[in-house]
Design goal:
The protein has 196 residues and is α/β, with parallel strands linked by helices. It has one domain: Rossmann fold (3-Layer(aba) Sandwich). It is built from 8 helices and 7 strands, in the order βαβαβαβαβαβαβαα. Strand 3, helix 3 and strand 4 form a beta-alpha-beta unit. Helix 1 packs parallel to helix 2. The model has no long low-confidence stretch (mean pLDDT 95).
Length: 196
């Protein structure tokens, strides 16, 4: 049975071409490395580029889309599997359950919200699956700065850096997933006695 990797990414057709290029490359590598794609089901933006690239290289696409968005006519109807959910919360739960790893490509509010929910679940030990950001054009640099600020002000522990991996491109992302060993991570809560 082929492993499935969930990819969160943009549905915008207006983003620079470099992001479409990385989506296409990731889709090709997923299929070539015997991974199926789980994603948000769109036929547009990086979503559509990714799905088409997976299938072009012989992989399978598992699309998960809320019925409200499905009615907009943006669904990727050529997917091997199209799951239509009642809402966004169910969609995210289905994507998490089906997937053995998670990758974030650059994206907007939805992409960031989805990958951070997965990180939060990992932080709380609901799963131990790999989580990877593909940092093309240093897109995720502001988020990394925010993470450093959260660590400095003790909103998160230094161990939180082990929850995710920053990859420079698709090849590095998949190599990390292939060789991944779940790290030992302390629970998220600080012991105030040790801080004094």
């Amino acid at each position: 049975m082929r492993s499935k990797i969930c990819v969160y990414c943009s549905s915008s057709d207006a983003v620079p071409e470099v992001y479409f290029d990385v989506a296409e490359k990731l889709g090709t590598l997923l299929a070539q490395n015997d991974y199926d794609l789980v994603y948000g089901g769109g036929a547009i933006g990086l979503m559509g580029q990714l799905a088409r690239s997976v299938q072009k290289s012989g992989g399978h696409v598992h699309a998960v889309m809320p019925e409200k968005l499905h009615r907009h006519g943006i669904a990727y109807l050529d997917a091997e599997e199209m799951i239509v959910t009642k809402g966004m919360r169910e969609r995210k739960a289905v994507m998490e359950e089906k997937s053995s790893a998670f990758i974030a490509l650059p994206g907007g509010f939805g992409t960031i919200e989805e990958i951070f929910e997965i990180l939060t679940l990992k932080q709380l030990a609901y799963h131990e699956k790999p989580v990877v950001f593909i940092n093309i054009n240093d897109f995720f640099a502001p988020i990394l700065r925010l993470c450093k600020a959260m660590e400095k002000e003790r909103f998160i522990k230094p161990d939180s850096k082990k929850l995710f991996y920053i990859a420079s491109g698709p090849e590095e992302a998949l190599e990390h997933i292939r060789t991944y060993i779940p790290p030992k991570i302390d629970n998220k809560w600080f012991d105030l006695k040790k801080l004094k």
